[in-house]
Amino acid sequence: MSTDQTTSMRRKPRLGAVLWLAFLIFAFAFPYLVDRPKFWIPNIGIKSIWLGVVAMSLVFLNRYVGLLSLAQMTIAGISAYGAGFVIVKMDGPIMMAIPIGLLVGTLAGFLIALVAVRTKAIYFLMITLAIGQVVYSFASQSIEVTNARRGLAPIKREDVGFMHFTELHIFYYVALIVAIGCYVLCRYIAATSFGLALQGIKDSPERMSALGYNVNRYRIAAMTFSSFIASVGGIIMVFDRAQVDPDVVALPATLDILIVAVVGGIGSLSGVFFGALVLTLLDNFSQNLTERYMTLTGLVFIAVLLFAPAGLAGIGKQLSALFARLKGPTIQDAAEADPPQTSPAATAEDAQETQDELSKGSQR
Amino acid sequence: MRQSSLALNVTGLSKSFGGLHAMKSMDLQIQDGERISMIGTNGAGKSTFFNLLAGVFPATTGRIELFGEDVTTLSTAKRAKKGLARTFQTSSLFEQLTAAENVFIALGGVEFNGASLRLALPSSKNILVENRWSRVERLLERVALGDQGSTMVANLSHGEQRQLELAMALALQPKLLMLDEPAAGFSPAERAHLVKILRELPQEITLLLIEHDMDIALATANRVVVMHDGEKILEGSPQEVRSSARVREIYLGGSLDDVA
């Protein structure tokens, strides 16, 4: 039995790897496959990339730390504002704006983490959402810093040395490579001792503190790291949009990220780019089909939740399980079709129980 | 002099949940290297005492001293760093990781050796990481799981999971090891095996064992504490406890599964 399992386990990633390679080749060939590059590259290509990167920071937190943060788009927006502020208000060069934007975004994420990690489950979700709303009201009202509703504009790309950022193709490839870099970085962090500890915290925070881990400190570190990833997405966004306004940190933008993460597969770091592609395509082409763009997006979202709960990234696995079942069901196939997952609801409940116990204890 | 050889000194410890007095003014002194078993029926306050020592929730009143230091208000993690390790009654292992990875994580809690941002793969060339993996191997061998390192926790048997629990607690190099019903759900053969593992623990580890199972409790301890209704009702050698009419009355008077 064990040999059967190992061969089947070996075969699967190979199929997956082929699919990913195909997607990667598609991504690199994309600017030359489309009929109107001036439309496709920024509106579909680069937008998918930054949506994906921001959603990836959300998936990282959810998959490896068990936290569902709605502040990721807010953090990306703050880094975009940081870069925009340097360019528009201070007339600074792009090479100064980028690091400052990243720094501001990451720092903001760190500060948000300081507050948010003290809460759990639904409260964590609510507090990240609330912080996002605070940032939104600030962005839409502060004339001195954010130009209020008008936003910071124009934020033009400049050529830096031999990098011709003004060239759309170049910008696309740089963004693509940066996104791949973010993915590799996330995978690397997840495979370090630090990353293993994070996964331990996701499974059982009580045990981790009994092992001597300062659970909150690890959560803060993880959120700060994911804020950095989100900030990278924010920087790509600000140069894609050529401006930054309060819409970037508004609720619909936050929900977009959630949709991208869920449609792509909330457990898959790379699936987010599928989700992002679906969203940008819907965003740009659903007007041709219907006036109700949001309704269509909502329907797609529901369809994914119902029929592919593991997202688009999980569809391959679902299909192969389906084929296997058609060929003749075996116990092993059934087990594989339904991979053991720790239910987020269960862990959330556990966390809640401990929380209740604690508050009862401190009330006395 | 005597003070310094105390591993644990608990005075006047109590805990109430709302109107429920789960623990009423408990006193307990444990010498360095002692093996203590705590027995009692369900709801006797054993687990409450355990959680109070581990710092899972704060004490209502009283004081806990660990190796001569007051730890009453310290966090769980800080207590672990002072040499206190525990196992969990209900399995809370990291199910999506292998047995070896579980122990690897356990090793990283107390010591910070700079390996934290290095790849944690067994094939890593980094010396710190390599050292840690070889310690993982030794710990797994110590609890007779040497050949199960690469097995996912979800695929381990119940007994093996309990053994893994023990390996993770030992990874902290504890001075005081608290075991919460380590034999729960064990077959007789597994029980015998566990007793053997526990007896082979280094003598300098102070052991506090909470156990339903009288045989294991009496076989591994040199002192037994009997709890009832949140209070300590008897403390003595296994022989004394075995022959106590009061203990027999509580255990046999209680429901059948309490006798275990």
Mind sketching the topology for me?
The complex is a heterodimer of chains A (364) and B (260).
Chain A: H1 2-33, H2 37-65, H3 72-89, H4 94-116, H5 121-141, H6 143-146, H7 168-191, H8 193-203, H9 205-210, H10 215-241, H11 251-264, H12 271-289, H13 293-307, H14 315-327, H15 331-337, H16 344-363
Chain B: E1 6-17, E2 20-31, E3 35-40, H1 46-54, E4 61-66, E5 69-70, H2 76-81, E6 84-86, H3 99-110, H4 127-142, H5 158-170, E7 176-180, H6 188-199, E8 206-210, H7 214-220, E9 223-228, E10 231-236, H8 238-243, H9 245-253, H10 256-259
Parallel strand pairs in B: 3-8, 3-9, 6-7, 7-8
Antiparallel strand pairs in B: 1-2, 1-4, 4-5, 9-10
Helix pairs in contact in B: 3-4, 3-5
Q: What is the typical, i.e. mean, pLDDT of chain A?
A: 84
Number of strands of chain A: 0
Strands of chain B, total number: 10
Per CATH, the architecture of the largest domain in chain B is: 3-Layer(aba) Sandwich
- Overall geometric form of chain A: globular
| Spatial separation of the terminal alpha carbons of chain B | 41 Å
Sheet having the most strands of chain A: none
Radius of gyration of chain B: 19 Å
Number of helices of chain A: 16
- Give the domain tally of chain A: 1
Please write the CATH class name of the largest domain in chain B. Alpha Beta
Characterize the quaternary organization of these chains: heterodimer
| Tertiary shape of chain B | globular
Which parts of chain A are unreliable, with pLDDT below 50 for 5 consecutive residues or more? 1-11, 333-364
- Overall pLDDT confidence of chain B: 84
Strand content of chain A: under 5%
Summed up, the domain count of chain B is: 2
Helix amount of chain A: over 70%
Biggest sheet descriptor of chain B: 6 strands, mixed
